[in-house]
């Protein structure tokens, strides 16, 4: 068995072009177009997997994923026509964006989604983290530094994420649990829980266009 390697991937322009052609072929075929953004080390079957830098470990993922895995600056815009994507998924990524970047992402995905389809977000829940890991009686010294601990920039709560989504124009937000998306798309989610309450520690949300 052969595996994905960093040297298989071209420069930014080449990767962007390769992705654009693959997406156009899927759209023309009438098959569902599904995207995983910031796939990290884990590309998904039946998705086009995008990241802006190569993170896959050696001898971990089959080179069969090469045709559906792309490394380019997708945060600067996803080269897909409006209203053509069936499903968008990302986890452990949203909290690494600042507030402006989050709004940019929400609007770009809203643009490319087919009306009625879903944008799936998995991320930590700041409300639960602050309540369970901080000791506010100690003042600022008692605040759990979620940001420095994990290089996070803007960690949402369920309330703040829903507000962002509605401001941008998503018509409904469904909160549920791990592997419980209302979209009907079946795939593996990896969002961690550890010793914490899985449903409270995390935000699992389906944003419907």
From TrEMBL:
Tell me which Pfam families the record gives. Methyltransf_11 (PF08241)
Ranges for domain Methyltransferase type: 78-116
- Signal sequence region: none
User: Could you tell me which InterPro entries the record lists for this protein?
Assistant: Methyltransf_11, SAM-dependent_MTases_sf
Task: Please state what the protein is called.
Answer: Methyltransferase type 11 domain-containing protein
- UniProt lineage: Bacteria, Pseudomonadati, Pseudomonadota, Alphaproteobacteria, Hyphomicrobiales
């Amino acid at each position: 068995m052969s595996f994905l390697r960093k040297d298989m991937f071209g420069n930014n322009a080449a990767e962007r072009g390769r992705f654009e052609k693959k997406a156009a072929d899927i759209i023309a075929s009438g098959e569902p177009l599904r995207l995983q953004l910031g796939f990290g080390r884990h590309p998904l079957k039946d998705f086009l997997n995008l990241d802006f830098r190569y993170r896959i470990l050696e001898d971990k993922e089959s080179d069969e994923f090469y045709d559906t895995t792309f490394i380019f600056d997708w945060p600067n815009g996803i080269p897909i026509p409006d209203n053509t994507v069936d499903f968008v998924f990302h986890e452990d990524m949203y909290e690494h964006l600042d507030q402006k970047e989050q709004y940019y992402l929400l609007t770009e995905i809203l643009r490319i989604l087919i009306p009625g389809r879903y944008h799936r977000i998995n991320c930590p829940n700041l409300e639960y983290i602050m309540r369970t890991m901080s000791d506010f009686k100690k003042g600022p010294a008692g605040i759990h530094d979620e940001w420095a601990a994990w290089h996070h920039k803007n960690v949402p709560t369920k309330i703040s994420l829903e507000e962002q989504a509605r401001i941008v124009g998503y018509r409904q937000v469904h909160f549920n649990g791990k592997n419980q998306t209302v979209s009907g798309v079946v795939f593996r989610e990896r969002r961690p829980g550890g010793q914490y309450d899985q449903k409270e520690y995390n935000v699992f949300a389906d944003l419907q266009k």
